[in-house]
Structure formats: C-alpha cells, structure tokens
C-alpha cells in the first residue's frame, strides 16, 4: 500500500515530457490575441522591457503590500553594476479591518506608511525631498496591466476584499493617496508582482537574468519573451517580461491523470475547488495538506499508525510546510521525525516514522519535479523563439520551497536538463526579490524613459509627417512643371528630358533586335527575339579594359563594334541586318530617338572626343570604320525608359518607369502639349525626369538633417543629386553610419565605444539594412554584422540599430512615394480622370531586395494619391529587353 502511494506520487519521465509540451502550448495560447481570454496560463504582459545593466543610479522607493503588512524600502543604486545597493526598510502592521474595509482606507494607509518612513529616513536632510522620488509598487494581485504604471485590479485574493477597487487603476489610487499626504515629489512609476521583482534583482552588469521562478506558498514564473509574440501588448520590438501565472495550469484537465486522491482531497477542502490545479501540487501552502491526506488514507488502509489515535490529523492545516521540510531534511535516522510527530500528538512506531518520511520526500520531490517540467517548457520556448540552437540563461530563484529543501536545486537542474537538453540554466538566489527588485524595475524604467527621450530627439528630424510629404509632393509637381516649360527648363532642378519614345508596347511588336547595355555594372550585348509566344533573349558580357574607357572615343566605339561583331558571329546573326537599341546610362541631352548629345561621362569613363557629341553618330561611324553592316542603330534609351518599356510589354497600363538602385530616377508618359521643349502637340512622349537632382536648387533644404549634410559633403558631387542622396542605395548605409556614430557619442549605443571600423566611410553597406530589417529574429545576423564592424553589441543595441535602419529606409520610401504621387496625380489631371489606373515598372536592387521598402512606398503612395490606383511590376532585365522594345516600337510606329 505504501509502495502504491509512493508510485502515484512519482511521475515518469515520458509523462513529464507530455506535460512540458502542454505547458508550451498553453503559453502560446496565453500570448495569442485570439486565445488568451480562455488560456489557463495567462501570460500577462508586464511592460518591463529591459533588465538592469548596472548603470542605474539614484534613490528609489518601494511600497509592498503584503499579507497583513505594508513594507517600505528605500534603495540607493550607485551605477556600479548594482553590486552593493544600500537598502533601508520598515515594516508596518496593518490595523484590524483594513483588508476588508474601503479602498480609500487601504491606500491612505499605504501612503501614510510611505510618508512616515520618508520622514524618519530623511528627517535631517530636507534638501532630498526637493528631488523627484520614483516609487515602485509591489501589488501581488491579479491585474490587467496596460502600461508599466497602469493596472486595473481584476479581483482580490488572499483575504483582501476592499470596496471600490476592482476595475480601478491601482497606480492612480496610490498616487492620489500619496498626493493627499503632500508628498508631491513621490511618483508611482511602476507596478509589479514579486516574481518580476525576483528576476530584476538577480540581474547584474554583464549577467542579465531573464527568467525567475518563485517556489513559495504559490508558484509562479516569469521570463523575457520576444515582444512581438506578446500579442496582448502593443510593444513589438525588443523583449518584454511576461508573468506566466502558471498556477492555473491544468485547470482545463490536462493534469487530471497525475492528480492523486490526496490532491483531490486538498482541492475539495480549498476555498477555490477546481482552480489552480498546478499550484495545489507544488505550492508550499498545500504540500503539508497533501501529506496529511496521504497519511489519513494510509491509516484507513491500516498501512501506518495501526491501533493509534490519529484524530489530530483530521484538522486542516495541522501538518505544515515547516513540518514537512524538517522531516525531509532529517537525512540520517528518524529521531527528529519521531519527535515532530509526537509533538503533533501522534504515537508513531519506528516503521511509521520511516514511512511518513518517505511520503514527505515523495510529495516534495514531486513538487520540485513539476517545477522542473514548467521551467523546461519556458527554456525550450525561449530557445525556439530566439531562433537559437542552444540557450544559456540565468534563472533567479526565490521562495520557501527553494530555500528550505536542500535537494531542490539538484533535482530541478537534472530534471530540466533531461527535458530540455538544448538549454543550460544557471540558478541565482535572489536577495530580497520584491523589495530590491521593485527598486530595480523602477530604476530601469527611468533609465529607459530617459534613453527613449534622447533616441527620439536624434531620430525626430528624420521622421516625416504627412504634411512634410504633401509639401514634397507639391514641390516635385512645381519642379516638373518648370522642367517641362521651355522658359524655365534651364533653372529647374528636375530636368524633364524628352526621350522621343512616344508609344509603349502594345503586344503586336515582332522581330529580332540587338541591344547594347553600357553604363550599368557590366557591358553587355544582347539579341532579343520578340514573337507571338513572347520574348526570348541571349546575351554576353564583354569587358571594357580601363585603357579603353580612358582612351580615345574612337577606340572605345571601335571596341564596342568588335564586341557586337563577335556576338553576332557566335549567335549566327551576321547575315541579318538587325535594328539595335542602345541603353546608354550616362546623362544625355536627347534631340531625337536616335540622336543624343553626351553631357558628361561618369562611372570611371573619360574617353576623349565624346562629350558634346551625338553618341548614336559615334557608334554609327565606328560601324562604318569596321565595315559592319549587320546592324542599324534606331534608338538610344535611358535605363528608366527601358524599365518602363520592358514592363509595358507585359502590362499595357505600364506608363511609368522607376529605378531605386545605386541611384534613383523615374520616367512617365507626358502629353506632348505639355512638353514645351519639343515641337508638336499631338500624342504623348516619355519624359526622363532625372529626379535624382530634385532639390539641387535648395527647395528640399528644410528636410536635410545633420546626417544628410555630412553624407553629402563627403561625396564627389556635394550639393548635387540631393533627392537621390536621401533615397538610393549608394547613401542609405552611410546615413545610418552617421546616426550610429552620433548615438554612440551620446552613449545610447555600444556603451559609448566607437570602433575604428565604424569611423570608416561607406563601411556600413545599404544591404545591411535589408538584413537587419528582414524579420523580428535576425538577431544572429545583426550581431554578425556588428561583429564585422568590431562593435560589441548587446540585445538592446541590436534593437535600437534596427530602429535606426527602419527610420532611414522608411524616410527613403516615403520620399520616393511623394515624388511618385506628384507624377501619378499629374497624369490623372492630364487625362481629366477622376480615377487613374496605372502601372509602374520598377528596377533596382534596393527596391527589389529590401524587405519593407516597396511596402512602405506603396502604402504612402496610396495615402498621398488616393484617386490613383497604382500597381507595381518588377522589371526583368529592363536595359536589355527595354532597349529592344524601344527599337521594336519605333519600327512598328514607322511602319
Ligand atoms: P544599378 O543601380 O547600378 O543598376 P542595382 O540596381 O543592382 O544597380 O543597385 C545596386 C545598389 O543596390 C547598390 O548600390 C547597393 O547599395 C544596393 N543593394 C545591394 N544589395 C542590396 C540589398 N540586399 N538590399 C538593399 N540594397 C542593396
Ligand atoms: Mg540598373
């Protein structure tokens, strides 16, 4: 019978694995917005988003509401890693009746305790009372917290039942009571429970504690969860401490099969039968009761205490946790056990003593094992949600069972290791969790608030309001009009260059075309077959040696013709005379579809005798010199136009081209009657806006931040391409780097230490923004990037870095959207439409690979141009396909 009793109290490992799984499921349920109302493990957000880092400094007051008492604590932190805070405290007994009286009386009493304590502590030093004194309030009842300093009481427990408090914000009630005491310098800044306090008090510099477990009268656990998973709180970046409230685990029946008849008796006897099933198996309030019921049952079965009177055991509560702990601690022999039982009024035999001890050990051992299963669930959950292969974590510990049972740590560690072998926990004993911890919470809250203010100050100039964006849109529109008008064109910052492309593809284009792509990353020659079935291409990359790039124009164009001949030979195309489209990505003044004067070389080219010349003519002359008759140059194309044309082949509504890569630019179909710089009023023409230069006349100066100015000054073209410098891939990384340097100087990042690498120009690449912003969990990659830059980053650094990147890329996308809004609105007006439906063909690696750029761009555009229905189509090889299509459309129009 004894063996059967002991077996029912021991839980096999497989069963613990199942329990761990249930706990993890329940945790997810508690965190999800949809299911948290029904969840048994409540997973309450605490609004504590950071653990102490040791720099916390100052005086912090704590008021703790306990059973029958109020405790006041003053903690002084020295910013020295929290190694030796100074603490003073005082305990006040609660007068009779307060716990069941009015809420007002309760809070007045707490405020009086605070007042009296402060008067005694500071009486000789009045100057201190001039300073603000932050106060943390430890309020161990079930609350719906919506901010660190806002919490509605859901229900009283533990014998409290004060009127007019349920449903009220208890922080507000305490603050009002404190104000009544004329303690206006005391601010209630944080409310928390004791578990959270334990976690906070165990954190020291360089050793954050991210889990806490309280194994006391009740049982509870809290941990730092990824904030975006805490759907019941708005916070989405970083982490937030979640109070699991796991005492109610099993209230839906998942623990029924391990409940023993003794547990059932304890539950039935309790004030809340059916509730807090887990807590009733592990809380020290219940362990003595479980033993008592086991002894009653075994006596009835005549397994112990045969022939003696056990009436004393019938009384609830006679067998206390203290008794249980003393019995289990009695390692050698049973002398003490006998004494304890005799004092209780029992007459145990030697054998009874041994059996009682076995029962006590089983009950306590089971409690620890269940704690271990719960802890294992939390550790595995953390490991999974942090996307880590292994997790090392510190666990703050508190409570009567933890402190009173010598084998607690050993059992907890070995069982949780078996259940979560991927996790390694280190237990840290808490020193006065609720008092010191509450001061820590308060201190961290103030540190974060101060830091937040400074971060906001740094980032504010980069954050654009709706009005800012509307203004950019209006300015862009103005500049467009000026660029189109013959008289003002010369002074407009947006040059609005005519391209002589007057039709987008209509799908009827047919034939084989050659295309050249010069001025991108590679020089390429392509053949493009446009057939009924679609477009197919073949291409080859050719090298242009530096000597030729910087030699004579003749040699350059001769080389290009050589490459074309080589390509046509290889492709068996020498017998044909093919039309050729030339994507030439250098600034040109176009005067016809096949006539474009080079304004200046860029990107390392400097071939002589070309600037001011017609590029098409130079190519034709070279063909003549080489006696190459297999091609006919019909069009010169800007890459923006190529992009529009390439997308236009798949979508006839595509009448805008956009590039967001190294630089940024756009083109669109404008009415000829509006193009003052070209003769004729009929039809439309594609306008190459060259919008990267928008703002070069100073009209965007108000948007330029300190960071943008520094970046601009270090470029080869200061003051030029102002719009582009706020948007494109060549600059975003560098803007982020400038912000990081300023934030580090202000000690908001990297503990104020700037690495020499971070001071290197252009070391922070724009592609880093994509990695950093990609998902909520790219922490490992963020750390890797920072490691590459020789920066030692903590979790909070990573979170702040992401915020900086998001701010910079969001601004870029919004500005781009404001520019596009001006374009689509102009097209809508041009056509006299209430609603315009149009497609933008887009190219550029920033647009294509950044995780949020396109989404932000589209959202802002919808907002700024609500009457335009704009879709976006990614271009595939716009320069090749687009140039061929320009040639094709030109031949179609000519026929
Ligand atoms: P180009 O504009 O010269 O034709 P791309 O469209 O490929 O070339 O753009 C290149 C630019 O894209 C680079 O300057 C770089 O800043 C940026 N870039 C490269 N990779 C990424 C990435 N993963 N995310 C965001 N931007 C990137
Ligand atoms: Mg490109």
Automatic annotation (TrEMBL):
<comment type="function">
    <text>Catalyzes the phosphorylation of various hexoses to hexose 6-phosphate.</text>
</comment>
<feature type="domain" description="Hexokinase N-terminal">
    <location>
        <begin position="2"/>
        <end position="203"/>
    </location>
</feature>
<keyword id="KW-0808">Transferase</keyword>
<dbReference type="GO" id="GO:0005739">
    <property type="term" value="C:mitochondrion"/>
</dbReference>
<keyword id="KW-0418">Kinase</keyword>
<dbReference type="GO" id="GO:0005829">
    <property type="term" value="C:cytosol"/>
</dbReference>
<dbReference type="GO" id="GO:0005536">
    <property type="term" value="F:D-glucose binding"/>
</dbReference>
<feature type="domain" description="Hexokinase N-terminal">
    <location>
        <begin position="455"/>
        <end position="649"/>
    </location>
</feature>
<dbReference type="Pfam" id="PF03727">
    <property type="entry name" value="Hexokinase_2"/>
</dbReference>
<keyword id="KW-0067">ATP-binding</keyword>
<dbReference type="GO" id="GO:0004340">
    <property type="term" value="F:glucokinase activity"/>
</dbReference>
<keyword id="KW-0547">Nucleotide-binding</keyword>
<comment type="pathway">
    <text>Carbohydrate degradation; glycolysis; D-glyceraldehyde 3-phosphate and glycerone phosphate from D-glucose: step 1/4.</text>
</comment>
<dbReference type="GO" id="GO:0006096">
    <property type="term" value="P:glycolytic process"/>
</dbReference>
<dbReference type="InterPro" id="IPR022673">
    <property type="entry name" value="Hexokinase_C"/>
</dbReference>
<dbReference type="Pfam" id="PF00349">
    <property type="entry name" value="Hexokinase_1"/>
</dbReference>
<dbReference type="GO" id="GO:0001678">
    <property type="term" value="P:intracellular glucose homeostasis"/>
</dbReference>
<dbReference type="GO" id="GO:0019158">
    <property type="term" value="F:mannokinase activity"/>
</dbReference>
<dbReference type="GO" id="GO:0006006">
    <property type="term" value="P:glucose metabolic process"/>
</dbReference>
<dbReference type="InterPro" id="IPR001312">
    <property type="entry name" value="Hexokinase"/>
</dbReference>
<comment type="similarity">
    <text>Belongs to the hexokinase family.</text>
</comment>
<comment type="pathway">
    <text>Carbohydrate metabolism; hexose metabolism.</text>
</comment>
<dbReference type="InterPro" id="IPR019807">
    <property type="entry name" value="Hexokinase_BS"/>
</dbReference>
<dbReference type="InterPro" id="IPR022672">
    <property type="entry name" value="Hexokinase_N"/>
</dbReference>
<feature type="domain" description="Hexokinase C-terminal">
    <location>
        <begin position="655"/>
        <end position="889"/>
    </location>
</feature>
<feature type="domain" description="Hexokinase C-terminal">
    <location>
        <begin position="211"/>
        <end position="444"/>
    </location>
</feature>
<dbReference type="GO" id="GO:0005524">
    <property type="term" value="F:ATP binding"/>
</dbReference>
<keyword id="KW-0324">Glycolysis</keyword>
<protein>
    <recommendedName>
        <fullName>hexokinase</fullName>
        <ecNumber>2.7.1.1</ecNumber>
    </recommendedName>
</protein>
<dbReference type="GO" id="GO:0008865">
    <property type="term" value="F:fructokinase activity"/>
</dbReference>
<dbReference type="InterPro" id="IPR043129">
    <property type="entry name" value="ATPase_NBD"/>
</dbReference>
């Amino acid at each position: 019978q004894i063996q059967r009793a002991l077996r029912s109290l021991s839980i096999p490992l497989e069963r613990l694995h199942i329990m761990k799984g249930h706990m993890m499921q329940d945790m997810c349920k508690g965190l999800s917005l949809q299911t948290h109302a029904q969840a048994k493990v409540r997973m309450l957000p605490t609004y504590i988003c950071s653990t102490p880092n040791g720099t916390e400094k100052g005086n912090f007051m704590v008021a703790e509401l306990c059973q029958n008492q109020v405790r006041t604590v003053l903690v002084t932190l020295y910013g020295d890693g929290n190694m030796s805070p100074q603490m003073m405290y005082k305990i006040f007994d609660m007068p009779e009746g307060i716990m069941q009286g009015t809420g007002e009386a309760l809070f007045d009493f707490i405020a009086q305790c605070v007042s009296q304590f402060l008067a005694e502590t500071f009486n000789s030093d009045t100057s201190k009372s001039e300073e603000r004194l932050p106060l943390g309030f430890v309020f161990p009842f079930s609350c719906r917290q919506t901010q660190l300093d806002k919490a509605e009481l859901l229900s009283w427990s533990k014998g409290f039942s004060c009127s007019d408090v349920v449903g009220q914000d208890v922080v507000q009630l305490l603050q009002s009571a404190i104000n009544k005491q004329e303690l206006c310098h005391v601010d209630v800044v944080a409310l928390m429970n004791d578990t959270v306090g334990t976690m906070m008090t165990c954190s020291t510099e360089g050793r954050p504690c991210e889990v806490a477990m309280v194994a006391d009268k009740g049982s509870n656990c809290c941990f730092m969860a990824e904030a975006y998973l805490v759907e019941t709180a708005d916070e989405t970046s970083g982490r937030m401490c979640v109070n699991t409230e796991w005492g109610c685990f099993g209230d839906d029946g998942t623990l029924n099969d391990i409940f023993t008849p003794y547990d059932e008796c304890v539950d039935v006897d309790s004030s809340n039968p059916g509730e807090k099933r887990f807590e009733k198996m592990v809380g020290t309030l219940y362990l003595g009761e479980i033993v008592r019921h086991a002894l009653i049952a075994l006596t009835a079965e005549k397994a112990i205490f045969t022939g003696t009177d056990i009436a004393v055991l019938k009384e609830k509560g006679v067998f206390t946790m203290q008794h249980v702990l003393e019995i289990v601690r009695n390692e050698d022999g049973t002398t003490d056990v006998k004494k304890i039982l005799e004092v209780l009024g029992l007459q145990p035999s030697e054998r009874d003593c041994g059996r009682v001890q076995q029962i006590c050990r089983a009950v306590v051992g089971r409690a620890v094992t269940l704690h271990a299963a719960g802890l294992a669930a939390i550790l595995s959950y953390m490991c999974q949600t942090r996307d880590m292969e292994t997790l090392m974590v510190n666990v703050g510990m508190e409570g009567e069972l933890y402190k009173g049972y010598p084998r607690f740590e050993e059992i907890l560690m070995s069982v949780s290791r078996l259940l979560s072998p991927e996790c390694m926990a280190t237990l840290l004993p808490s020193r006065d969790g609720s008092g010191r911890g509450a001061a820590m919470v308060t201190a961290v809250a103030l540190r974060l608030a101060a830091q937040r203010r400074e971060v906001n100050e740094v980032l504010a100039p980069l954050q654009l309001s709706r009005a800012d964006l509307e203004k950019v849109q209006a300015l862009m529109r103005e500049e467009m009009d000026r660029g189109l008008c013959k008289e003002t064109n010369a002074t407009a910052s947006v040059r609005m260059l005519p391209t002589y492309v007057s039709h987008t593809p209509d799908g009827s284009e047919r034939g084989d075309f050659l295309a050249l792509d010069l001025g991108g990353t590679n020089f390429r020659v392509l053949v493009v077959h446009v057939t009924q079935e679609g477009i197919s291409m073949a291409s080859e990359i050719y090298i242009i040696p530096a000597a030729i790039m910087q030699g004579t124009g003749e040699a350059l164009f001769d080389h290009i013709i050589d490459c074309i001949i080589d390509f046509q030979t290889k492709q068996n195309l020498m017998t044909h005379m093919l039309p050729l489209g030339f994507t030439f990505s250098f600034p040109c003044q176009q005067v016809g579809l096949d006539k474009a004067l080079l304004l200046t070389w860029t990107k390392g080219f400097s071939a002589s005798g070309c600037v001011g010349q017609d590029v098409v003519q130079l190519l034709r002359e070279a063909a003549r010199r080489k006696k190459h008759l297999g091609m006919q140059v019909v069009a010169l194309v800007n890459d923006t136009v190529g992009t529009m044309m390439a997308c236009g082949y798949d979508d006839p509504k595509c009448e805008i081209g956009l590039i967001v890569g190294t630089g940024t630019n756009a083109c669109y179909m404008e009415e000829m009657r509006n193009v003052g710089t070209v003769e004729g009023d009929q039809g439309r023409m594609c306008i190459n806006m060259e919008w990267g230069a928008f703002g070069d006349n100073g009209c965007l100066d108000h948007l330029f931040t300190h960071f943008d100015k520094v970046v601009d000054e270090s470029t080869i073209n200061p003051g030029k391409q102002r719009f582009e410098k706020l948007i494109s891939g060549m600059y975003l990384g560098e803007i982020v780097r400038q912000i990081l340097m300023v934030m580090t100087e202000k000690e908001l990042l990297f503990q104020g230490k700037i690495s020499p690498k971070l001071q290197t120009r252009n070391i922070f690449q724009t592609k880093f923004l994509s990695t950093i912003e990609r998902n909520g969990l790219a922490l490992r990659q963020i750390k890797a990037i920072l490691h590459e830059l020789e920066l030692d980053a903590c979790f909070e650094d990573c979170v702040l870095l992401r915020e900086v990147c998001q701010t910079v890329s969001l601004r870029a996308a919004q500005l781009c959207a404001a520019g596009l809004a001006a374009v689509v609105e102009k097209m809508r007006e041009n056509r006299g439409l209430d609603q315009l439906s149009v497609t933008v063909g887009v190219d550029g690696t920033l647009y294509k690979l950044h995780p949020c750029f396109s989404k932000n761009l589209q959202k802002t555009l919808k907002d700024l141009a609500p009457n335009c229905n704009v879709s976006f189509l990614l271009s595939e090889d716009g320069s090749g396909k687009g140039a061929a299509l320009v040639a094709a459309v030109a031949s179609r129009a000519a026929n």
